[in-house]
């Protein structure tokens, strides 16, 4: 975006929004692509992006043009992105991101913006708190009556102190007061995304060559290949759905399977001291409805190669090239290893990217079908559900259009080797339900403060972010 905004051939347009005397949002359009930038400059022709790495001198220098009477408050530029993300969550919860629903409830939109933003800064972004101040009803009359009643209740509820069953009194601003359910239940959903970048490493086999065989052996060199890891990261997220009455207290114990979660992020309802003392226990008063309780990242590069591979999931790719008589063939293998509590892999597909205009000639295909998606992009599609223990194989040749076609005798001459071409990238995509690649599981879920025993559900989902061989 920086090169697009500051490019010499680009003409900067007028600021879209003048945030302050020193900050503005500008737009640069190139064809059908528009770039928006939050910049620190009163003159849009002298752009400098506001970043998190600005030092104190540049910050002070940039604010010299501000009014002396105005108090300078340092702000984090990421707050804009976080606010937009929360705003989309609110629109999804209230209107399901439907254009027609939003247009039909413009008054609700105005009320939401009044609560979301106060004095030009984010104010209330918690969905449960917003629902108390801006309820969403189906009819206009009931909307006015309920809004008046709810505002009065919400004001008193946020001022009062909730009394827990164990005698401890706490303010619970993220939870609606007087929540009641006929059927009490909770759900814990843990999702992990696999991000792995692999690259083939070639080892030439050393052979003793006799005199006169050197040229022939040079044309028929054989290689053994393996994939080594360039980058491997697991992104985890714990979502909690609460349909519990009153003000319950929940404790979740995790089995981390030998992992150490470095710097996880939590919902503000989580008691951080409990996590810091134990490292595997999350204690909290849950918000009503669905919320993201916790997010974490596992950097698999810190592990040994064998341990890191165990956390790549059940789908293990293989890649070999330089095969066949003419050494221009490649082979992609996929192994679906067995895993406890998992019986199948959903929506498995492999995307093969080559040079533009190239085609992939199939020599052997054990499972699925190879489809052409666009120029230079092919998709190896499998059944919707694939059983574990399956070994799939695709062998082929990447062919480019030849401007100088060869004769039949030249094509049959094995002594003349063609210039080989290989896939540029091979990307995997699939979903698994029932287990996580890291092996993390929920050991127990304990709920106090309820007169009934609630229903508890736990679900594990594995998805793929970027699983690429290149």
Automatic annotation (TrEMBL):
Gene Ontology CC, one term: clathrin adaptor complex
Record-linked Pfam families: Adap_comp_sub (PF00928)
Keywords (A to Z) from UniProt: Cytoplasmic vesicle, Membrane, Protein transport, Transport
Locations listed in the record: Cytoplasmic vesicle membrane
Highest taxon, organism lineage: Eukaryota
Broad class of where this protein is predominantly found: membrane
Domain MHD: 183-470
GO biological process: intracellular protein transport; vesicle-mediated transport
InterPro entries per the UniProt record, alphabetical: Adaptor_comp_med_subunit, AP2_Mu_C_sf, Clathrin_mu, Longin-like_dom_sf, MHD
Family: Belongs to the adaptor complexes medium subunit family.
Name of the protein described by the UniProt record: APM3 protein
Species, as recorded: Cyberlindnera jadinii (strain ATCC 18201 / CBS 1600 / BCRC 20928 / JCM 3617 / NBRC 0987 / NRRL Y-1542) (Torula yeast)
